[in-house]
Amino acid sequence: MTLLKVVQSEVVPETQSRLLKEGKVMRKFFAVLLAGLALLLIVTGVFAQDDTIKIAIGVEPDVLDPVRQSTVLIANIVDFTCETLLYMTPDSELEPLLATSWSVSPSGLEYTFNIRQGVKFHDSTPLNAEAVKFSFDRIIDPNIPTPWSGYVGPLERVEVVDEYIVRVILSKPFAPFLTGAAYTATAIVSPTAVRDMSPEEFIFSPVGTGPFKIESYVPGVRVVQVRNEDYWGDLALPKKIIWNIVPEAGTRLAQVLSGDIDIAYQISPADIPRVEANPSVELVSVPSTRTMGLCFNTSKPPYDDKKVRQALAHAIDADAIAEDIMRGAASRSTGLLAPSFFGYYELPPYEYNPELSKQLLAEAGYPDGIDDIAMFFHTAGRTPMDTEVCQAIQAYLGEVGVDVALVTMDWSAFIAALLSPRDKSPYHLTNLSWGTPPDAHHTLYTLFHSSMHPPKSFNLSFYSNAEVDRLLEEAAVEVDRNVRRDLYRQASVILWEDVPWDTLYVVNMSLAVNADLRDLIVYPWEKFSVVKSYLEK
Amino acid sequence: MLGYVIKRIGLSFPLILGVTVITFLLTRVLPGDPARTIAGVNATNEVVEQIRQKFGLNQSLPVQYFVYLKDLFRGNMGVSIRSTKSVMQEIMARFPNSLSLVTLSVACAAVFGIVVGTFSAIHHYSVLDHIATLVSLFGVSIPIFWSGLMLISLFSVTLRWLPAGGFGTPAHFILPVFSLSLYCVANIMRVTRSSVLDVLHRPHVQVAESKGLPQWIVIYKHVVRNALMPILTIIGLQFGSLLGGIVLAETVFAWPGLGSLLMLSVFSRDYPVIQGIVLILAMVVIATNLVTDLAYAVIDPRVVYA
Amino acid sequence: MLWRNVWKTLKKSRIGLVGLGLILLFVLISILGPLIALHDPLKINLAYSLEGPSRDAWLGTDVLGRDILSRLLCGARPSLLICFGAVGFGMIIGVPLGVCGGYFRGKVDLVIRSLADLLLAFPPFLLALSLIAAIGVGLNNVLLAVGISTVPVYIRLVRAETFTIAEEDYVTSSVALGRSNTGIIIAHILPNIIPVIVVQSTLFMGITLLYAAGLGFLGLGAQQPQPEWGAMLGAGRNYIFSAPQLSLFPGLAIFVTILGFNLLGDALRDALDPYQT
Q1: Virtual torsion, Cα B269, B270, B274, B276, nearest 10 deg
Q2: Is residue C199 less than 8 Å (CB to CB) from chain B?
């Protein structure tokens, strides 16, 4: 015992004090670490960018090339980078943009544009008639897969008349041509960039004349646009725009509510009360030109039978969907198009009537419903409540004896599947929502003309009707607005009865916006602009 | 010692090879034409033929495997159908994000778990011990996709203290790391507790205690080092387990890592990327096991001679 | 004899009893759920979309107006089936392989051990996920995928136990006496590895439920409109603000059930551990 005590008294104090010192050192180290962490958090908070506008979107931009972008949301991003000849105001008026003036020949076949001088692309190439010709040629180039040739219609060729004068020659008059010239697909891109960059590079980093340049694109994460300091017009107010890809509507909303982002694109209608109750966030909900409907693949039986399609149209309670799922952020469709369209015609809706539905199915030869499972392809997060609406449709069709299997796909895979050629087309049903500048041609032609079948464009129902083709073609070249309107009326009546596309509702564009954001411009065709926006302190 | 290290590293190679076989089979086991699977649903027939030639898909399976292996050696894992970038590029862009998340989570869980576990063992059957056990049982039972959502609901939406997902600042790490460590800490705590408890009853510890050394020294010098082996094992296992869990965590928190890339690829039918991610993560697991085994040798040199 | 002792020890553990109770509740709900549910879990009723708890719908309704409680009750059964099915699958494949490896050793063991190590090189959830990516979504595939991910652990565990037991005197003497391998395995090995298997299986039930719910959450499990807890939680993700009950209740159900398995498994492990201090 004594020996141990001796050992202890000699050995222990040394070790004890050494370890005690070690302990103190440890504590100090942790204290410094914590302080450093706190400082870091504060610093990052202080230096948070306030001349940056952060936007959260739900769809990944698969392609940023103006000619090949696949949907309005992506076109919105492209618009800030690549500009078109004309600009359409929210009131659907056309104004000069890259074209300072234009004229149409009396025959309606020639459009002459004066190109703005002194404009440079982001790669310093000058804007001239050559560049315009080059860009328009890309749309009609058979080697470039673009779904938007319908916007330029019967474009025959483009001539360079002078360094800053370009002439577009159509083979037939085309009434909506000027609308097309204001649409993203016809944006002017730098020929040098297209030639020098590889196609893979260019589709993610297009070079245009716009107020913003693409700084970076991290697939699946974000697109960053940075202000073009050499812009030909007024400099944009924000220095940077960051588009974050956040597939979940709930997460987008959470981010705007906590101030992480400034604009949440497409919030869920169920969250609208919450947005309205929160003073730091504002709801911007505008009726758009987008109609949502159930599209039947008429190349696959039994959906080639008109009676079957009509039966299923009666099986769906579109009023309930518009009122209860969309909660007022949509209005029941009253025709093929939204009421704001030129060429809109009101048609009697397919009333919800499951009994009638079953009866019609029986008449078509399916008294016990349809045996084969219907493959319903859809994507999630593109339009508000799209998944829920698809599930509701599945339930309604289930009640009349049609077994529906929902196939959810990511946006780019979804588009790829939809644009499969007829013999490889994998879907029976799909939820097709379509919104364009408000001219009937852009919707009806692309969706129902027989030349627009996949893989070329979006006639997803593979609809083919010679009479409708004729009507749509005539309407495209008709100059008299009243005659045009009547042609569209006739086409609508036929399309309504054939119901390749059962329209359900017209959706609002709903944005949750930071209440301090000023001068946000919103367009009825689901686009918005922050070029002149700023955050008020 | 060096011999042990070399032997241990050497044993990894057959494992790595085996892993490549399995990931190779992943795309060959799918129904339909593998060339079309790799090229994408909507690729033109010419592109499909090109892919068929390039990967030798019209040849026998072993030959295909060798082509696959050869490409792997050159760092070529194919091209993403979704983004047209190389799979290697896609993965490397996101790999650090996932790695930092998992490492940080395991580190936090380890520190906390070891400290509390040791404390629990020393004061076993005390009230605090029981509470710690219960908390750990709860922690291991809470699905991370639920705890994540609830945490976002509380801290981001209601209290607005923390960002609701996303990536960029240190603050963005807090909730995901907390959710992930919650799951790990439970297991680490339990193993530490039982391991330390086991060692505490060993003779040499009782001798040290009877020498009158302060508890702090007894624990540090005598107990922990000996108890470390099982603790290291569980930490290594948790690391591997979390690599699977990141799929869920990254989805909930919109974290741009390999987990969310995997989900995106599954919904895009982007098989080259799925294959690449599975391979890379399996490699990380193998590397982790290797490091753990080597750490054993450092802590307890007796292992080398076993 | 062993089991009576186990039961005695278990009875003393309050935690274990709570766990057992929770599991019995889970099994009961899985069996009776569809019978006691007040509403049709599949029938949509848009007018009642996202309502809070009411007299008619005790836990509220989901976005399509379906009663959450009814869907929870009916969603227990798929979860139960996957749990038991996946664990059963793992046992049926993993245990015999493990026994063979541990008993016969040599080349047989090398092959089996390598197979297990190979599968274990993949993070288990990732393994299940990639299997689903290969074979497709749906409940059956989830069962298969999750089941496969449990196999290597069973192999390892059973192999280690068999190794130890095979060294015991009564086994070596049986071998010396010339008893057939099959006889020895059945008479001596199997009864002695059962405790380990029971504990592991109970714990695995919790884990397989977690994985299955995780796959459901990601949309890879039960497809709409079939109710399943993980899928319900996933669907509720977007309604965190407006209707947190959509996420709260399925998550709670999953949590409580997993907890039950973990509590029971823990208690069983303590009861069966011969070295318990």
Answers
A1: 160
A2: no
